[in-house]
Amino acid sequence: MTAYSSHRLAVDIGGTFTDVVLENGNDLVTAKVLTTSSAPEQGVVRGIQDVLSEAGIMAKDISMFLHGTTLATNAIIERKGATTALITTAGFRDVIEIGYESRYNQYDILIDKPAPLVPRELRFTVPERVDIHGRVLWELDEKAVKDLIPKVVQAGVESVAIGFLHGYANPQHERRVEEIIGEMLPDLSITLSAEVCPEIREFERLTTATANAYVRPLMSRYLDNLKFRLEEIGLQCPVLLMTSGGGLTTLDTASKFPIRLVESGPAGGAILASGISADLNLHKVISFDMGGTTAKICLIDEFEAQRAREFEVGRQARFFKGSGLPLRIPVIEMVEIGAGGGSIARVDGLNQITIGPDSAGAEPGPAAYGRGGGRPTITDADIHLGRIDLERFAGGKVELKPDLAASALRSDIGDKLELPSLMAAYGVTEM
Question: Whole-angstrom Cα distance, residue 141 to residue 123?
Fold first, then answer.
C-alpha cells in the first residue's frame, strides 16, 4: 500500500448516527457517534478524534478525507430546509405544482401528490421570454424584478431559485436577475436553474433548482463549519465529498450545488455493495441500506450499481414512480422510502399504524435513547422485540433504556389499538 493511501479517513453523516472509518495501513479503525443535528460538524470532529486517538496518529498524518452524507436528503424528506422562493417566467408560476398532470396511481382517487418545496405565495413571476433556440422574444422586465425585492424580504426568504422557460438554451435573463437581487440582497442564497440543471423540460429543471435552493443554506453553513473545524484540528489533506452519482467533488462545488449530494451517503453504500458482489462473484445482488431516517434499496447487476439521470425523493407512495419530487441529477439508481430506524410510528385517523416520514433523529432520538424523545420509533420496536443487542448497540456508546421504548409503544400505539406493547411493536416493524 502506498504512503498516500496509508491514512485515509471517511465519514458518513446520517440522520441519527455519524460513522467514521480510518484506514490505518492494513487496519480499519471505526467510530460511531450520535449526529449533532444542529451542528453536524461537531459529531464529525468527535468521531475523528476518537479514531485518531485509538490509532495513535495525528490529524496532519491523514492523506485524504472522504465524506458522504444524507443531510440534504433528510432536509427534503422532513421538509426542514430553508424558506425558499421561486422566480420564473410570467404565466408559469404553477409549473412545479402541476407537474406532469398525470396520476401515479390512476385508480386511486385519494392519492397525495408531493407538495412543492416552494409554496404558491412564494412563487413569483416576471415578464420575459426566450424561445427553444435561445432567442429573446421578450426582454426581461428589470423593474418587475426590483419590485419583487420587498416581497422577498417581507416573507423572510432565505434562498431563491431562478428558473425561466428555456433558460438552459440562453441563461442571460436568469443571470441578470441574479445580478439585480445580488446587488440589493447580497446575503441571499441564489440558485440558477441553468447552472443546476441546464436541460430541456421545465418541470424537472425547476424542481431540481428549487430543491438545490431549499437545501443550499443548510449545506453551505455545514460545509463552511466543517472546513473550519477540520483545519482547527490540524487536518491538511484534500477534502472530497461523494456525489449522488458515485463520483467525488470539492467543498466549493458541493456548497454551490448541494443537490448533487442528495444520495451521497447511500451512493457510497451501493459502490461498496458492488465491490462485495465482485469479490464474491455474485452477478445479481440487491443492497439494502437502512439509516435513521430513510431506507434505500439498490440493484447491483453484473457487479455494477445501476445509474440514472433522474431520481425521485420523498415518495408519497412506496414503489410508485411519480409519487415523489423528481430531481434531474446523475444518480445511482435506488428506491428510497422515508422509513429508517428513527422514523416515528403513529396511529392515523383510520386506526392504522403508519411510519414516518418524520424522524426522531439523534436529538432527541428514539424513546429508548433516554434523551427526551417520547414518541415510538422503529428502533424502539426492535428493542422491545429483543432484536437489538443492548450492550453492543453503537459500539456500546449509547445506553439503551428498554422500559422507555415499551412505554412509548404502549401509550402511542398499544393503548390506541387495544394491543399489548409487544404486538404494537410487531405491528410497527411489519409496516
Answer: 17
The cell for 13 is 453523516
E strand or H helix that includes residue 71: helix 71-77
Q: Which domain holds residue 361?
A: 343-430
Nearest to 251 by CA among 3, 41, 62, 48: 41
pLDDT digits (tens, 9 = 90+) for 374-418: 899 999 999 999 998 888 887 777 888 889 999 999 988 888 888
Backbone angles phi, psi at 289, to 5 degrees: -130, 105
Rg of the Cα trace of the chain? Answer: 23
Burial class of residue 422 (count of CB atoms within 10 Å of its CB; 0-12, 13-18, 19+): middle
Instruction: Judge if 145 and 199 occupy the same domain.
Output: yes
The predicted pLDDT at position 3 comes to 43
The amino acid that residue 13 corresponds to is I
pLDDT (tens digit per residue) in 189-240: 999 999 999 999 999 999 999 999 999 999 999 999 999 999 999 998 989 9
What pLDDT digit, counting tens, does each position of 52-107 carry? 999 899 999 999 999 998 888 888 888 889 999 999 999 999 999 988 877 878 88
From 296, 315, 337, give the residue that closes a domain: 337
Is position 181 within any domain? yes
